[in-house]
Structure formats: structure tokens, C-alpha cells
Amino acid sequence: MNSTNLVDVINQIAVERGIDAEDVFTALNKALQEAYLREYPGSDVRVEINKKDGEIYFLVRKKVVKEVKDANKEISLDEARRYNPNIKEGTIIEFTQRVGILGRIAAQVAKKVINRVLRDAQLKAIVEYYKEWLGKIVSGKVTRVTKQKIIVELDKGTAEFPKEEQVEREFYEIGKRYKFLLKELINEEYNRHIILSRKDPRFIEALFEMEIPELASGQVEIVKVARIPGVRTKVAVRALDKDLDPVGAFIGPKGVRINAVMEELQNEKVDVVKWDLDVVEFIKNAFLPAVVNKVDYDEKKKKATVYVTPEQHAIAIGKEGVNVKLVSELTGVNIDLQEIK
Question: Within a domain: residue 78?
């Protein structure tokens, strides 16, 4: 291995790729030490790289003994006196070995380290770029599907769409673009990932933010989202501007805004309900499209008995109990649904 050329290559690549050459040298140092220990287990060794002439050395510490039992930890008295004529038995000696003792292994390690540092630097730049998109919507194309995750190609780099962040009833087609919530950024050395979600309730909020100018401007706000992904979502909203209808703002003219959101959700039903400080009124609103006749609310127990007509009972419960479950989650109240007799 030509050490001088190696140093020149590292410095050149660092300039071309916009990374710190010191990061490459540090990683190379660590990797060469690990390579040495694989060849000579149990050794006490450190690595020095001369960044001017490119020479690489192993500084090895061994105990001076009369009879060597472990060559990786011990050195004979006769051999030690080649380094220091006055050395005594039992002394710890540090001596230099050139990188050439690993030969081809050292060259392979250097190549791998440079490639690894370059990849990590590129991933770091991509993750840094997406910091401002955290919690927002990004668009990407599905490129690969596995049992545990889907790989998505973004405008810059790729992201992971884990199974636990996918909606069971949705189908993701290779080559097709979808919208995602940029849920998490993992930005650790050699462990950098962009995590996407379509299951997180914040995905609903982020979709509405794209469609509703009044939400972005702060005229209306989302108080809470209750969701059974792929089935139904209820969104409680309120207006900070008294002259503005919050539900109307979310629905949009002829339903254009909410339809855009539901289309992206592959036709998951979305109910927008008006939040109310009065819990009874909020419960009535949350049950829509079902019409509630009466609510008996126990504030201490956070429980409400809700009365509906027989005609409204099935609507109030919803298919497989979905509607009443979401009402309970949205309002934070345990619901007991009863028919008026």
C-alpha cells in the first residue's frame, strides 16, 4: 500500500465531496486498529498516521518476559533488547511496527473506510437537508417492497417506510408516488435514516395544512385527531376568528378540500367536527353524521350516556362500532349509547 498516495486520495476526496478529511483519518485509524486486533487478538495497540508523509504505524505494547507464552501480549527479553539494550524483564515496552505487517488487509481496510465515510457523509447531508421537513408532508416514489419496510425515493436520497407506519388497508405500488409524513430523522454516525409514516394521526393534520390556507395562517386550528387508519378519522376543529366557520374551512367549496385529503387517504372517511368547550355539545358534534337527542354527562367519571332514536342507532355506532369508538377517543369520554324508548 502506498501510504503517501492514500493520504493524497483522502484529502482530494474530502475536498471534492465537501467532507472533513479528519473524519476519514479518524475512521481509518479505528479500522486499522480493529484489523490488527483481528489478526493479533488481545494485543495492546494504537495507530499513528503521519498526515504529511503518509506513513502509518502500529504502536504495540508488550510485556518483556524470558519465555513467551502469548506472542500477542509478550516479547522475549532478547528481542526487546533490540529496541532497548537496557530493558529489564517484567517491563512494558512500546515499539513500532509498520503497517506493512498487515499488507493486503490494511489496503482493503483503507478502501472500505473511505467508502464508508463517504456514504455516511452523503447520508448526513441528506438528513440535515430534511430537518426542516420534519412533521411535514413529503412526496416520494416507492422503489422496493420488503416484509419489514418499503424503500421510498425522495427528491434527495431515499427514506424508509416501516411496516408499523403503513396502513393495512392501503396498497403501495412500486413506481407510484405517494405522500408521506416525515415522522422521524435518525442522525447518528453510520446510522442515519429518514422514517416515513401514513399511519400517524399527524399525517392527517399535515395533509390538511397543505389544503387549507386558514390553517397555515392560524385562523383555524385542529384541536384533536382520532383515527382508525384506513377506516375512519374524526378531526375536531375550531376557529380563532369568530366570523369564520371552522368546519366549512376544512370542507371547502363543494367539498373540494376534504375530498383532496380523502383521495390521498385512498378514500378513508374523514369527519370534520366542531370542537366545543361544552363537553355535551362537543359529544353531539362528534357523533355526526348521527343525530343525538340527549346526553347525560358525568364529569367526575368522564362518562356520558348518549340517547339516539332507533333510526339513528346504527349510524351512531358505525360499522363494527367504529363511530362510537372514535367519538370516545376524540372527546376523552367513555360513551354508553342508548336508544330512546
Answer: yes
Helix H or strand E segment including 262: helix 256-264
Place of cell 362518562: 303
| Residues 112, 9 share a domain | yes
Cell representation of residue 249: 374551512
User: Of the residues 68, 101, 125, which one is the last residue of a structural domain?
Assistant: 125
The number of domains in the chain is 4
* Measured distance CA(174)–CA(213) in Å, rounded: 32
**Model confidence at 321: pLDDT above 50:** yes
Residue 255's region, left for phi above 0, alpha for psi from -120 to 50, else beta, is left
pLDDT surpasses 50 at 1: no
- pTM to 2 decimals? 0.74
- Let me know whether 141 and 170 are in one domain: yes
Question: Does residue 258 sit in helix, strand or coil?
Answer: helix
Residue 272 forms beta bridges with which residues?
A: 235
Question: For residue 230, what are the domain limits?
Answer: 200-275
Candidate from 93-107, 109-123, 135-149, 293-307 with smallest mean pLDDT: 93-107
- The phi and psi torsions of 256 (rounded to 5 degrees) equal -65, -35
